[in-house]
Amino acid sequence: MPEGDSLIERFWETVPPVWRQTRAQIRMVAHERFGLTVEQFQALRRIRHGHNSVSALAEEGRLSRSQASRVVDALVRRGLVTRLTDAKDRRHVHLSLTESGKQVLSAVFAETEAWLAKRLQLLSKDESEQVAAALSLLRRVFD
Amino acid sequence: MPEGDSLIERFWETVPPVWRQTRAQIRMVAHERFGLTVEQFQALRRIRHGHNSVSALAEEGRLSRSQASRVVDALVRRGLVTRLTDAKDRRHVHLSLTESGKQVLSAVFAETEAWLAKRLQLLSKDESEQVAAALSLLRRVFD
DNA sequence: TACAATAGTTGCAATATTCAACTAATTTGT
DNA sequence: ACAAATTAGTTGAATATTGCAACTATTGTA
Predict the structure, then answer these.
(1) Which residues contact B87 (CB under 8 A, 6 or more apart)?
(2) Helix, strand, coil content of chain B in percent (nearest 5)
(3) What Å value separates CA A128 and C1' D17?
(4) Model pTM score
(5) pLDDT tens, B93-117?
């Protein structure tokens, strides 16, 4: 399987370092400017994305429910997230971002996207389209 | 910047989840079958890749030197890594994989690559080449 | 109604992580 | 040549993170 091998090679050469750099960038902005751990930032991101319960956060982030609960605790103490007990099923606690939480998340994203755009702009228009198309393909096979 | 935006969108939709799945796969194999933490596995990988000192591991893995030192300690205790003091500069300690370490790393990689190949084989030959080319481009702009 | 299942939180023990101090070896400035 | 600075690595102690198990509270089910 020679073609497959070279694609696998490219995958290993590309995806981990690209993500590591991106993650390091997120960490730098989130931690050094806002005092958030990466886990806390991820939780904010996931809450915004609609994973608004402790269990959903735990599953998405591959951490235990107890840890997820404590991460949420820290975010609530910082005033970035609110807990709201579901009226219909009082076992559920709905998490949502406060205004402050939204602002922090937007700020981190804005800085990270500026950083990302600077790199992606090194591609020509043609190359951009090519990469975008390829990423769609890649995403599809990982669904 | 409409084209750029869509590439950035694709990036966020693709790279983090693809890597998260890959990482989860590594973790599953490394931890559940070999009792390695992800950090320990990463250290093995980096030592094989030539980052064969405690400082190099610390820098690559973005962890403190003291922690890197302890991770190496654990690997040495398990017989997966050896320490060898440099004869010329006796401050340096060269790390290398033992046979057992190589075998463990190969086993983890083999299982992970089988998993990866199963996904990438969903692509046609043309698509494979397209994705491989795009990954090269992406890698280039992140160097 | 009793029993099981689900969502979440907390106590506790085991690990992991960091900061600072430390040893040891080498390099540098004078 | 030699004191001071630098580099590599390790360790102690304080702190934080994590996972397991136990717990409360609520809802679903036989």
Answers:
(1) none
(2) 75, 5, 20
(3) 41
(4) 0.83
(5) 999 999 999 999 999 989 989 999 9
